[in-house]
Amino acid sequence: MIRLTYGQRNIFIGTAVLCTLLFFGTAAGAAPSVTAVNTSSSENTVPVYPAVPTQTSDPKSTANPTLPSQSSPASTQIPVTVEPVAGDTKSSEITKPNVTSSPGSSTPVTPGPASGSTSGTTQNQTPGNSPTVPLPAQTLPNGQNPAEKPTPPIPEIVRPPKGGTLILHISDNTFTFTAGEALTQLESGKWSYRPAISPKEATEEANNFVNWVPDGSFRLREGAVDRIAKAFLDAKDAEMTIPSWRVIADTLIPLTHVSVSGGQNSSTALSKIDGLVLPPKALFSFNRDVGPRTEETGFISGNVLQGNQYVREVGGGICFASTIVHQAVAQTGFEILEHHHHSIRAPYVEPGGDATVYYGVFDYRFRNGDYDLLFEKRETPEALGLRLWQAVE
């Protein structure tokens, strides 16, 4: 209930009756302004409330009413004192609409939230038109926006390394290299190589290739590794011959019919010529290249055949080494300049296949061909031998 003081009279009316009086007053064209005074407050004067606008036939209409100007001459000020009645909870819930309009303007103004209200929504919301409540932001891993579809990763394109085809002639072999990810043997005579980015890397790759080749296939000469490394570094189409040696003779004879001292002295003699390089057309002399047979040069006492009997001398049994040299040279076709046989058949080779030597008396000599000749000693626990390599330019 609300008590209205009109002049000297106190009128108690309900809120519904108050709204009805204000409604008909507006419809009649005289929209008196009333002053509401709240006796429970220390401030008895409150802003003037305009008349309630006419309700349209459409209860769902959200059109804002047209408020009359406060400066209209038809407006009258009616002092009203509003006091809540004890026990009436509805009267204390009346709120003053926050309506503003400029003087002399009939522009519709949308009422704002009630004074002192903590709600952020307007009071003239229509049914079915609920306020928009912001949703909490969604988060996805890697900072992706949920409104956007994740972009699939771009697959890495593997491109073959750039590099030319290399054809290397090494000894009697031909090796074809194509650019690849690593140094790998694809099949017999065909390899892949990784183009080097530095001289050091190229040299390492060249050495790896040489070490992977089976022993005995070829032997490189001085400067060969540098040439292969340069080809890996340039990585251009090229065909070249690598300085190398090719085997032209290879022999290995068992020690079955050789004495222990004879085997040791023969091994010492072959060690003297191991690694010897004989220039083109040069003469080979066993006595000259092996040297005198003395204890100082590493020889021991052994059996020496004199006539039809054996005697002990330092270097005895060295004829097994000279026979090995002859067996190898016989495979080359080189010109043999001096060759002597034993007075009796040597048991370790076929008849006529031996070669006896005696320092200062009998020698074994031959002349080299048109290319450098390299001597390589071969030795196993059961045999001794010699391999001859010819230079490939």
UniProtKB/TrEMBL annotation:
InterPro entries: Glycopeptide_resist_protein, Vancomycin_resist_VanW. Pfam families: VanW (PF04294). Residues 37-162 are annotated as: Disordered. Residues 100-122 have a biased composition (Low complexity). The keyword GTP-binding does not apply. Residues 1-30 form the signal peptide. Keywords: Signal. Residues 53-79, 123-132 have a biased composition (Polar residues). PANTHER family: EXPORTED PROTEIN (PTHR35788:SF1), EXPORTED PROTEIN-RELATED (PTHR35788). This is VanW like protein. It comes from Heliobacterium mobile. The lineage of its organism: Bacteria, Bacillati, Bacillota, Clostridia, Eubacteriales.
